[in-house]
Write a structure and sequence with these properties.
19% strand, binds histidyl-adenosine monophosphate, elongated, single chain, 2 domains, 40% helix, BirA Bifunctional Protein, domain 2, nine-stranded mixed beta sheet, alpha+beta
Length: 430
């Protein structure tokens, strides 16, 4: 039987692992320097958790199954609901604000395409318990900090920012019923992702009234914060949302990243739980889906049975990101294998046991050490030492009977006889 890998999954060969680790290590480093601490949760949860508040799109992409006890479960398509559940469970014991990060492996039964798979990794940074949009600014700063640290520049990416609060206020101002808001968000989120006529058709299905549709289309074409005032009129909620966006852009300017950010009313986000500022980061050159997306979700903790505590955060997947970093040549020169400190070669088969003992001793002393399973001619063993990038070669020959090791520097070829005791004393001092 010829077994294939499953559609939408990836195999990570050592060179792919080097790339994956580069991204994951940098996610972690940038999280920590921005004041976040790491958490994780289980890879499956109750199915109902994702059906309740994540929205229809995610609910239709779940890998769900029934366990032997008849419980309906799902592999996590995102970690935000788990975060809300975990924070709720310990809310009185956790010091606030809560600044947590995680890099979970997630599964979504999407149609696989460039940058979208059925299994992927997603960096999450979230701040819980800070009402001011300074927390949203911090999330945006941290995501941008990562992309800049990875080698991208202001010419490469843009953070597009909008507000669900603003869109909700405007939709209600236009007379759209509250119960319909989620359905309309799902349509508006598709605006830049599908052809204009397909978008207008979807909008027509959600909103029958042509006058409301005309107003919504006019709103969706506003291209600057300043022009919004005219459309919002005296609507209090809309004006509050506009003021909040202005404040956010103020914070972003203070933090020195205003040039990376742009107001874009078209950012609505696909998930149902967002309540305020929302944003997505895009590659300027390509037409791929977002590198990163997030926003404020002030009701999710309460919706999951907890207190009403404000929260904001974002998720960045490794797929679109990996393609972009690769295209820009920012994933080059990543070491595939560990380089070896000491390669132990033995001059004849009778010395193999001594070589093995030395290898064990070196490894226990913390050095990276390896040897040839086959042994054979010293020249061949040296070749193998070069192939694994060994810095030094320790040769066990006849002089080993008198406690002497031959240590060869693989960079300059120089060779030295050293007493085994002195060699290990030196190693300990390093
Ligand atoms: P999301 O927009 O569904 O948000 O996903 C965020 C990012 O995850 C996307 O921009 C993309 O980079 C990546 N992503 C999503 N689906 C896939 C896929 N099928 N294949 C590859 N990459 C994918 C969330 O998941 C929110 N929970 C983020 C969040 C955290 N909001 C607040 N805190």
């Amino acid at each position: 039987m010829n077994i294939q890998s499953v559609k939408g999954t990836r195999d990570f060969y050592p060179e792919d692992m080097a790339r994956r680790n580069f991204i994951a290590d940098l996610w972690k480093e940038v999280s920590i320097r921005n004041g976040f601490v790491e958490y994780d949760g289980p890879i499956f949860e109750y199915l109902a958790m994702y059906q309740q508040k994540s929205g229809d799109e995610i609910a239709s992409q779940l890998f769900a199954f029934e366990d032997r006890g008849g419980r309906m479960l799902a592999i996590r398509p995102e970690i935000t609901p788990t975060l809300a559940r975990m924070v709720n469970q310990r809310i009185n014991a956790l010091p606030r604000p809560i600044k947590w990060f995680s890099s979970p492996r997630l599964c979504r039964a999407e149609r696989p395409q460039k940058g979208r798979l059925r299994e992927f990794f997603q960096w999450n940074i979230d701040i819980i318990g800070v009402e001011d949009c300074l927390a949203d600014a911090e999330i945006i700063f941290c995501a941008a900090d990562f992309l800049l640290a990875a080698g991208m520049t202001a010419a490469d990416f843009v953070v597009r920012i909008s507000s669900r609060r603003l869109i909700a206020a405007m939709l209600e101002y236009f007379g759209v019923e509250k119960e319909k808001l989620n359905a309309v968000y799902a349509v508006l989120d598709k605006k830049s992702k599908i052809p204009q006529d397909a978008f207008e058709k979807m909008l027509e299905e959600a909103i029958a009234d042509s006058d409301k549709r005309r107003k919504i289309l006019a709103l969706m074409s506003v291209d600057s914060l300043d022009k919004l005032g005219g459309i919002a009129g005296a609507d209090e909620n809309a004006n509050k949302a506009i003021d909040e966006l202005k404040k956010l852009f103020g914070w972003l300017a203070t933090m020195g990243i205003a040039d990376l950010c742009k107001f874009d009313i078209g950012i609505v986000r696909g998930l149902a739980y967002y309540t305020g500022i929302v944003f997505e980061i895009y590659d300027k050159a390509g037409d791929m889906r977002a590198i990163c997306g997030g926003g404020r979700y002030d009701n999710l903790l309460a919706d999951f049975g907890g207190q009403k505590i404000t929260a904001t955060g974002c998720g960045m997947g490794d797929c679109v990101l990996g393609i972009i970093l690769e295209e820009k040549g920012l994933l080059k020169n990543l070491a595939v294998a560990n380089s070896i400190d000491y390669f132990v070669a033995f001059a004849e088969e009778s010395l193999q046991n001594d070589a093995l003992k030395l290898i064990a001793k070196l490894r226990r002393a913390g050095a990276k050490a390896d040897f040839s399973y086959k042994g054979g001619a010293l020249g061949k063993q040296m070749k193998q030492a070069s192939a694994v990038n060994a810095s030094k070669c320790v040769i066990i020959g006849q002089e080993y009977q008198t406690g002497q090791l031959v240590v060869k520097n693989m960079t300059d070829g120089s060779q030295q006889n050293v007493a085994e005791k002195d060699f290990f004393d030196g190693l300990r001092q390093q």
